[in-house]
Write a structure and sequence with these properties.
This protein has 17 helices and six strands. The chain has helices at 2-15, 41-49, 54-67, 69-82, 86-99, 107-115, 131-134, 149-164, 179-183, 200-205, 207-214, 224-232, 234-255, 264-273, 276-286, 299-306, 308-312, and strands at residues 25-26, 125-126, 129-130, 168-169, 172-173, 258-259. A hairpin with a 2-residue loop joins strand 2 and strand 3 (129-130). The termini are far apart.
C-alpha cells in the first residue's frame, strides 16, 4: 500500500508539469495547400539576378546531399542528439539553398568559407549604439528575469516589436523592420550565413540549448565574431539548425497542443519564418472553441513536403 501511494503521488506530481492540453493533436503529413503558395518577390529577384532558377538550385542542393556522405552522417548524428528525425534538418537546408542562397558543391567549401571569417571583427549595433547597450534600456528590464537564452532574447525581440519598431524613442527613430535585421546584420539586412543559413539573433536565442546538448561555447552579443564563426562553421551550424527545429516542435506541442514532428513541411516553414512561440500562441487562439485549424506550410515548406520521398531517399 505504501509503495502504491508513493507511485500515485509521483504520477499526480508529474501531471502538474504537463502542458494544459489533455490530448496533443498530431498534425497530418503532407501539404494543406494544393498549389504552392507564392514565393516572395525578393527571393524571385535574387534568383533571377544570379541567372539561375529555383529548380536548378533545388537540384544542386539535392545533389550536394546525395554525393556528400560525410554531411549526411553529420546530419543524422546531430538529429539523434536533439531527438528529431533527420528529414527535418534536410528540409531546412534544402529550403534555404533553394530559395535564399545557392549551394556550394562540397561540404569542404563551407569549411573554407567559414575559415575566411576567422579573426574578423564584427559588431552588432544600430546607428552607433551597440545591442548590449540598447537592451540595457529600461524597456527591457522585465526580460532580465528570464533564466535561459531562448526566453531572454525572445522577450527582447517582443519588446522591440511593441515599443521600438517603427517608433521614435528618446529622440531616436527606429526602422520599421525586424530586430534581427536592424541590430544583427552588420553587412546588410537579411544576410544569413553558412550551411544552415542561421540568423545571428536565432543563434543567440538557441545558445543555451546548443551548449547543453552539443557542448559548444555559449554565445555573447558583445562578441559578434564568435557568433558568426558559430553559424558559419558547418558542424556547429548543424547543431543550431537542429536546436531551432527542436524548439519549434516543443513550442507547438506545449503552446498549441499540436505535434508537428511528422510534418517536415511545417517544421521547414517555421525554420524559414521563425517566431515559433508567437505563431504557436496565435494558432492556439484560433483553435479555441471551434473546428481544428491546422498549421499550414508556406512556399518553402510546401516544396519540402512535395519532394519528401526524394529527400527521404537521401537518408
Amino acid at each position: 500500500m505504501r509503495r502504491f501511494l508513493i507511485i500515485f503521488l509521483t504520477v499526480i506530481a508529474s501531471l502538474a508539469w504537463m502542458p494544459a492540453f489533455a490530448d496533443v493533436l498530431v498534425v497530418p503529413p503532407g501539404n494543406r495547400n494544393v498549389e504552392q503558395p507564392p514565393v516572395p518577390g525578393a527571393s524571385v529577384r535574387r534568383t533571377k539576378g544570379t541567372k539561375t532558377s529555383f529548380d536548378r538550385k533545388y537540384e544542386k542542393v539535392r545533389d550536394l546531399l546525395a554525393n556528400d556522405h560525410e554531411l549526411v552522417s553529420k546530419i543524422k548524428a546531430v538529429a539523434r542528439a536533439y531527438g528529431i528525425d533527420p528529414i527535418h534538418i534536410v528540409g531546412a537546408i534544402v529550403g534555404e539553398h533553394t530559395y535564399n542562397v545557392d549551394a556550394y558543391d562540397r561540404l569542404q567549401t563551407y569549411y573554407v568559407k567559414a575559415a575566411s571569417y576567422a579573426g574578423e571583427s564584427f559588431r552588432f549595433a544600430y546607428n552607433g549604439e551597440s545591442v548590449d547597450s540598447f537592451v540595457a534600456r529600461p524597456q527591457f528590464a522585465a526580460c532580465e528575469t528570464k533564466k535561459d537564452s531562448y526566453g531572454l532574447w525572445t522577450c527582447r525581440e517582443e519588446v522591440w516589436e511593441a515599443k521600438f519598431r517603427g517608433k521614435t524613442v528618446d529622440g531616436t527613430s527606429f526602422p520599421d523592420n525586424r530586430f534581427s535585421a536592424v541590430f544583427f546584420q552588420p553587412f546588410y539586412a537579411g544576410q544569413t550565413f553558412g550551411l544552415g543559413q542561421v540568423n545571428p539573433l536565432t543563434a543567440l536565442m538557441l545558445s543555451d540549448l546548443v551548449h547543453q546538448v552539443s557542448g559548444y561555447d555559449r554565445l555573447d552579443e558583445k562578441d559578434a565574431g564568435a557568433v558568426y564563426r558559430a553559424i558559419m562553421e558547418p558542424d556547429i551550424s548543424l547543431a543550431f539548425v537542429a536546436a531551432s527545429i527542436r524548439k519549434s516542435i516543443d513550442d507547438y506541442k506545449s503552446i498549441a497542443g499540436m505535434d508537428i514532428s511528422h510534418n517536415p513541411g511545417v517544421t521547414a516553414t517555421l525554420y524559414n519564418v521563425g517566431n515559433s512561440r508567437q505563431r504557436a500562441a496565435a494558432l492556439a487562439a484560433r483553435n479555441q472553441g471551434g473546428a481544428t485549424v491546422w498549421p499550414e506550410e508556406n512556399y518553402y515548406g510546401w516544396l519540402v513536403n512535395d519532394k519528401l520521398d526524394e529527400l527521404k531517399a537521401l537518408l
